[in-house]
Amino acid sequence: MNLLENRSAGVLLHVTSLPGPHGIGDFGPDAFQFVDWLARTGQRLWQILPTTPIGPGDSPYQSVSAFAGSPLMVSLQPLVMDGWLDAIDLPDTGFDAHHVDFARVVPWRLLHLRRAHRGFLALGSADDQVAFSAWCQRQADWVDDYALFMALETAHGGQAWWLWSAELVHRVPAALEAARLKYADEVSFWQFVQWCFDVQLSALKSYANARDVSIMGDLPIFVAHHSADCWARPDLYELDAQFQPTVVAGVPPDDLGPLGQRWGNPLYRWDRMAAENYAWWTARARRALEQTDLFRIDHFRGFAAYWEIPASSPNAVDGRWLKGPGKPLFDAIERALGRLPIIAEDLGFITQDVFDLRDACGFPGMKILQFAFGEDATHDYLPHNFPHYCVVYTGTHDNDTSQGWWHAAKQRERDFAGSYLAAGSHDIHWAMIRAASNSVANVVIVPLQDVLGLDGSQRMNTPGTLGGKNWTWRFTWSALGSEPTRVLGLMTAASGRGPFGLLRLG
Fold it and tell me: Does the CA dihedral 147-238-365-484 come out positive or negative?
């Protein structure tokens, strides 16, 4: 059954926000416990954010690979159970249970993953060794370049790939082969981490699916300049002879930013991708569907038209719109993979061509309740104007929490929202969840922060900012008490999105 075409509910929570003893959420026991909680409250979807390695600002949207998984999400407990990592290596570290301290967590995690790799090489069973080798062969199209890229990045002290030796920058075959031999152990380590990632995520997905919970992923549209993807195929990007971007991605000025947003990602050479029948994108979508049941595709409007900014510009003001690949891209992917279970992130400055492309592809778009109260009763994001085929959110990871939004909103917005939702500051989060749940929208997804009624200090990300608490938020099981569980279950059941028997929770 296609969840996007039926009435269902879900929760938005990134893997890194899960509880756990080792500084950051991962695919360990707490992830399975969260699936149990989702099932108990009648949720059919668990939406996570990109699972790719983090990049600048600790963001998963600026990753060194569009295909790899984050080493930080690999749980250490299974590696101990497999006998590859000593239990004494897992002390009570005193990590913050409420926020990720990336400066501490990243080196600590990598240290223990390296110890697990050594343990695997020395103590891994014959079956495990065969399974690892077979996985490496199946994933060779991307993992070979990624693992070598990471080994070379390590050897160069984190230096950007275009500053390496000319032979490596230009990928001279003899130089690549020599590097694979020289750094064979380091290459093996990064392959091992990716194998562990896949094994653990696969186990979690199977566990969730068995409990009628689907995993929803997130696919960023662009890749980072310093990435295995750019290094492996620079011809697919708008780069000059020194492998520097000539133009970069972003969005134009709007009410939220008079200078627009200059993201800095290199733009694709869509003509070259089309000449290869969009093979790179097909491989990327295939990889996403190996790991998740469906996924949101970020910045969908960029496939209709995208904002091109000269790389020399310090902001996004001097950009221009260029036509994107459009439906031929998705037609090519569908011919290879079948019907695509995609949600189109159609937020921001949206023109009719974006809606036309979304509808031609058969993808549902998104509605955000926090954006609904700035105008009048005709606004598309008000529940009485929703179509059935859409996904409604109270807010996303880039928005404030509902409580934070309420307290920061203009008085007119609060008056409108209070009247429309029959709510005030103490219950605005539940009122927004109720309105979304009772709407005709097929799918409703709520950030866990709103289920918990948290204020704006607990938001996940503030776009256009670096540092601070972005991407660090975590919850604790004590915060997820009986009352949020009971009320969410009641609303899910009463709105026809979960088993009606959940009403007995009341």
Answer: positive
Residue 413 has pLDDT above 80, yes or no: yes
Tens digit of each residue's pLDDT (9 = 90 or more) over 258-298: 899 999 999 999 999 999 999 999 999 999 999 999 999 99
pLDDT of residue 348: 86
Question: Can you tell me whether residue 143 is helix, strand or coil?
Answer: helix
Q: Are strands 247-251 and 294-297 parallel, antiparallel or unpaired?
A: unpaired
Active-site residues: which are they? Answer: 298, 345, 398
- pTM of the predicted model as reported, rounded to 2 decimal places: 0.96
Residue 44 structure tokens: 């059919």
- 331, with CB counted inside 10 A (0-12, 13-18, 19+), is middle
- pLDDT tens-digit profile of 20-74? 999 999 999 999 999 999 999 999 999 999 999 999 899 999 999 999 999 999 9
Integer-rounded Cα Rg, in Å, for the chain is 23
CB atoms under 10 Å from CB of 470, counted, come to: 17
Q: How far apart are CA 170 and CA 126, in angstroms?
A: 38
- Which of 468, 480, 458 has its CA nearest to residue 402? 458
Give the number of residues written for the chain: 506
> Is the pLDDT confidence value at 142 over 60?
yes
Q: How far is CA 380 from the centre of its chain?
A: 26
The first and second tokens of residue 478, run together, are 């004590």
For residues 367 and 393, the answer to whether their CB atoms sit within 8 Å is yes
Which residue is listed with tokens 């279950």? 489
What H or E segment, with its residue span, contains residue 264?
A: strand 261-266
Closest CA to 382 of 349, 421, 426: 421
Question: Alpha-carbon distance 165 to 241, whole Å?
Answer: 15
Q: How far apart are CA 421 and CA 218, in angstroms?
A: 30
Tell me how crowded residue 136 is: count the other CB atoms within 10 A of its CB.
17
Burial-class residue 99 by CB neighbours within 10 Å (0-12, 13-18, 19+).
middle
Report which DSSP code applies to 87. Answer: G
Percent of the chain scored above 70 by pLDDT? 98
Q: Hey, how many other C-beta atoms are within 10 angstroms of the C-beta on 351?
A: 11
User: With contact defined as beta carbons under 8 Å apart, do 168 and 231 qualify?
Assistant: no
Are 348 and 254 within 8 A, CB to CB? yes
Q: Where are the alpha helices (DSSP H) in 227-377?
A: 228-232, 270-275, 279-291, 301-304, 327-337, 352-361
DSSP assignment string, 354-423? HHHHHHHHT--EEEEGGGTTSS-TT-TTSGGG--SSEEEES--TTSPPHHHHHHHS-HHHHHHHHHHHT-
Specify whether the CB–CB gap between 400 and 411 falls below 8 A.
Answer: no
Are 63 and 85 in contact, with CB atoms under 8 Å apart?
no
